[in-house]
Amino acid sequence: MRKLMDLAKLDERGVFIYFRTSELCRDFMRAAEAEGIAFGDGVLPMQRDVTNIFALHNNKTINYVGAYGHIAFGCGARVRVDYEKYRDGKDDYIIK
Question: Which residue segment(s) compose the domain that 74 sits in?
Answer without folding.
Answer: 4-87
